[in-house]
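PROTEIN–LIGAND DATA SHEET

This sheet pairs a single protein chain with one bound small molecule, pyridoxal-5'-phosphate, given as SMILES. Inputs appear in the order they were entered. The predicted three-dimensional arrangement of chain and ligand is reported afterwards as a token string under its own label.
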Amino acid sequence: MKDFAFTGGRPDPFTFPTEALIEASAKALRDLGGSLVNYPGDNGYRGLRELASMRFERREGVPLPVDNISLTSGSMQALDLVLSTFIEPGDTILTEELTYSGTLGIMRHLKANIVGIPMDYVDGMNVDALDARLKELKAQGIRPKLIYTTANHQNPTAAILTLERRERLLELANTYDTLIVEDDCYGDIDFVPNPTPDALFKLDDSNRVIFIATFSKILGAGVRQGYFVARQPYYDAIHENRWDGGTSALASAIVAEFFKNQLDEHLAVTNAAVGAKCRAVTETLEKNVADLCSWTQPRGGLFLWITLPETTDMEKLVELAGKHNAGFSEGRVFHYRSDPIKCIRLAYAYCHVDNIPEGITYLCEAIRAAQVESIDIAAD
Ligand SMILES: Cc1ncc(COP(=O)(O)O)c(C=O)c1O
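PREDICTION REPORTED AS:
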């Protein structure tokens, strides 16, 4: 049976640059040679830090400070290091009420008090609601340790925080004396030429923002190359919490070698492929469930968020879609309190583009058949 995997935030496997990476690997190994007997050190292979800096400059017009970048095993390790440096059990963290399940997992593991801030699916976190929540917390004598946000192409909704909201978020972080962790996991996956608003890290002039990014979503999660960027004293504070000997210099050097002359070209090819898949998904949804559901219209990133009718039997939906291997992620895993919301997330980059209409049609049929009322009517 075909596998229609709309689960997991993976990039397009069909544009994965295997041959170019084989060449980059040979070059990297020759260049590094015996230096690979050394540990990479806490901050990691300089060539990839320079590349990360240039990557930011390409989009934001200013480079990242190379000596403030630290390479990690995917951005998951960066999140783990950053959050565990600042969070003690019982500390308060604010975040969009829907956010990446992996980050929620770390926050829960650290026994943080997670406060979800209402958001809309287009413009991101509602900063008025954030302001109100911060006021309430202050009145209770609580100073949140940090605000976690995915400002670009948010996981799971594809929302993009507007410039105005970014500026307000920074002001609030200042007023209430808290840090911002900006997770830029999807920042370079854009299907339209107009740029996303400036990064919080770029806009920040009072050392409030720690920036996190990854090569997982523009190359592959299997390479495990991510990073955080923090100014002092945070950079050293995070490293005091690090014991792993550093991130594979070999893997870092291969990624740096591959991207150094072809970042633009690679992004053009992969973003075109992923954008076509996103359109194939929305067109099929439009044909089949426009009367039942609403969904976001991503201009980038890897995810589309579908709001289902309240009459959807979620268990039945999982079961029916599963019969055709049409996989998706249930909305509740992204909710800060795991509320059983009637929403699902589709990750559209992994499935072959030719299989998308068939897979999404199965999913749409399952959505229709999982309506409690329609089941009742059928049973009468
Ligand atoms: C918002 C966000 N941050 C971080 C990650 C972790 O990715 P990685 O560790 O592969 O860089 C993910 C993965 O899906 C994600 O969606």
